[in-house]
Amino acid sequence: MGRLYKTAAIVFVIDQITKVIVVHLMNLASVGSIDVLPPWLNLRMAWNRGVNFGLFASDGNIMRWVLVAVALAITVWVVVWMRRDRPGRWGLISAGLLVGGALGNVVDRVLYGAVADFLNMSCCGFENPYAFNVADISIFAGAIGLVLFTGREAKGGKRAVKPRGKGP
Predict the structure, then answer these.
(1) Which H helix or E strand runs over 88?
(2) pLDDT in tens, 108-122
(3) 46-79 as b/e: b if 16+ CB within 10 A
(4) In a domain, 7, yes or no
(5) Among the options 35, 59, 85, 117, which is catalytic?
(6) Is residue 6 assigned to a domain?
(7) Is 117 a residue of the active site?
(8) Residue 165 located in a structural domain
């Protein structure tokens, strides 16, 4: 479980530091956009009041707190799942990525009322209209990692199911 907590802490700190640097020190909240390595990397300020890609966005305070509650519930569920199933190193790291990213976005919602998104990447003639942050990358990578690195393999390549209610 130490790997989960260390990974979550590292992701959380990196996410919050990048947000302080970009949003406040570089003043992206006021400037709106900064071209770093166009078109590959640009900073574009976006306050996301919804979930991925702004889905379920609302200026209402109720949705803000619903999304905080959902993120915290998912975080607790993932930690309980990891404690119960005890996956290997990569499963715990994946869980830590997801938990650290979720908590980083929770802090944004509490402090700002929305998630601070600012990374914008485009390539090869495609102009990406969306912005994201370190927490979003970590949540995505963590979710993929949980799919790939959790579960137990039984003979024949099928996942083994632990019987419930009968000993360890």
Answers:
(1) none
(2) 999 999 999 999 998
(3) bbbbeeeebeeeeeeeebbeebbeebeeebeebb
(4) yes
(5) 117
(6) yes
(7) yes
(8) no
Please count the CA atoms within 13 angstroms of the CA of 110 that sit on its side-chain side: 11
Q: pLDDT band at residue 38, thresholds of 50, 70 and 90?
A: confident
- How many other β-carbons are positioned within 10 Å of the β-carbon of residue 158? 10
- pLDDT given at position 43: 95
| Domain assignment present for 134 | no
Q: Which amino acid is at 27?
A: N
The residue range of the domain holding 120 is 2-126+139-152
Between CA 78 and CA 43 the distance in angstroms is: 31
Q: Is 108 labeled as catalytic in the residue annotation?
A: no
Domain count for the chain: 1
Packing angle, helices 134-149 and 2-19, rounded to 10? 160
* Residue 132, CB-side half-sphere exposure with 13 Å CA sphere: 16
Task: Give the integer Cα–Cα distance in Å for 34 and 61.
Answer: 30
Segment holding 45, helix H or strand E: strand 41-48
CB 139 within 8 A of CB 62: no
